[in-house]
Amino acid sequence: MATVYEYKGTTYELPDGLSNEAALAKIKASLGETEVVAPKPTAEAPKVTAEAPKEQSLGDLLRRQLGLATRAVVTGASAPANIVTDFLSGAYNVGANIVGSEKRAPYLSKEQSKGLTQLGVPEPETTAEKAAQAGMQGLVSAGGMAATAPKTIFGADLVRQLPAATAAPMVAQPVAEVTKEITGSDLAATIASLGVSGAVGKASGDIAGRIASGKQPTTTMADVQQKATRAYTKVKDQGIELSGQNATSLVDKVKARLDAVDYIPENAAPVANILKNYESILSRGNVTFDNVEKMRRLANNLKSDPDKNIRRLAGEMVDSIDDHVATLSPKDVVSGAGGIDVAVKTIMEARKDFRNASRASTLENILDVAETKALNPSASESELIRQGFISLASNKNKMNLFTKDEQNAIKAVAKGSSLDPLLTLMAKFNPQRSQLVTGGAVGFGVGSPETLKYSIPIAAAGYGADKLQALIRRQSAEKAMSGLLTGTTPGPQPSYYTRGLLSTMMNPPQQ
């Protein structure tokens, strides 16, 4: 038997049992066709292997690190100028593109980097090197700005500002790299790096501040008053006295202060009696500091009088005496046995304690909320303290006791935090402060238990908001109090969030 095969349109009969390959070979052989067989390699092709990296010596590593540090210092020092010129170049290039011009302004930062590379200064390669480079550049740029403009905000509070400026770009570098790897977008990487820079800058500045300041001792009203008492004693022991003219001025100020708050002798006999005592002291000539302290003590004792009006007037008398003593100068006193030089030194040293005592008395009135609480039981203690700060902020005479920074701290407490309006609204639903809410919740619950699903969470939210607001207000008041009692209220501080952001903008991550 034969099998028929077709090849190029022609049929061929071949014996059975041949494979297709064998049949095709026989047909091609009969036609004189030969197959081109690829030659087999006679020898194995040589393998190309990558040369193993040469291990760097310690000297090479040190030279590289020195070069990277040099690049960081040069780039960081010029970063403030580069960010300005790069912005101008970018603005020019955008304008040139709009009008169809082919001219382009070079970016100074890129030209600088290119020049450093041409000089043989190494470039950071790994993520760790890039992050370290960014951090060093941030430190150098912040330090340079502080040295150039020490009286500006860039030269203020370097203990917090330098760590914020260093850490922000250092963290921004790996964040930008990871974001770019995930999204493939340079814009997303830039946004992510700037976003994290602010948070890292603020956290770094706050942590550095806490470490630098350490745990500060708490100053109480009693501490301030004890210092003032010791100052009185020291002045008295030196034999220093108020001149007759200054003592008369003191009593006149007390009377003027009382007249300004509607003092009527017939309605305040204890106050009138003390004023007579003051006149008796004046009649003796120069007034010793023993008698000055006695005048204050007599007025202060009336602050516990059962009559509310007497207590009010007594507070004004004490404040008036404290205000006067706090502003004493050497010309207001008569020197004792130590002579005028000792008198001047003693008075100037004591004046700060006198002034702090005066301020402590003012703040003590704010903290003494027992009477106000009795008149308004539903009001929280924190709200009453805040109201006291509001009253203080609106009293020009009392505010004059405080420096500009201290006045700003008082106004900040009076204003409250940014959350205060929202928390005030929510706190109205606290059952502890609103019988209407409590009764409504119970009433609705009895009438329709289903409504408890809504009334109980609202009451709980109101309770939580009230307690959170009280905590925030109390912390704010205590912080302000501490600075006011010790005279250590800080001035306006730079925003470390903004500082971190600015540092990364001047030293952007390397893509």
Give the helices and strands, then pairings:
Layout lengths: L1 E6 L2 E6 L4 H11 L27 H42 L8 H11 L8 H22 L9 H26 L2 H28 L7 H17 L3 E2 L1 H17 L8 H14 L4 E2 H13 L6 H19 L6 E2 L4 H29 L2 H6 L5 H13 L2 H4 L4 H12 L4 H8 L7 H13 L4 H35 L9 H11 L5
Antiparallel strand pairs: 1-2, 3-4, 3-5
Helix pairs in contact: 2-3, 2-4, 4-5, 5-6, 5-20, 6-20, 7-12, 8-9, 8-11, 9-10, 10-11, 11-12, 12-14, 12-19, 14-16, 14-19, 16-19, 17-19, 18-19
Judging from the principal axes of the Cα atoms, what is the shape? elongated
In helices, the fraction of residues equals 55-70%
Q: Sketch the topology as an H/E string, one letter per element.
A: EEHHHHHHHEHHEHHEHHHHHHHHH
Q: Which radius of gyration do the C-alpha atoms yield?
A: 42 Å
Count of helix runs: 20
Count of individual beta strands: 5
Based on secondary structure, the structural category is mainly alpha
Strands in their spatial order, largest beta sheet: 4-3-5
Report the β-strand fraction as a percent range. Answer: under 5%
**Terminal Cα separation, in Å?**
77 Å
Largest sheet: 3 strands, antiparallel
Chain-averaged pLDDT: 79
Segments where pLDDT lies below 50 for 5+ residues?
36-46, 441-447
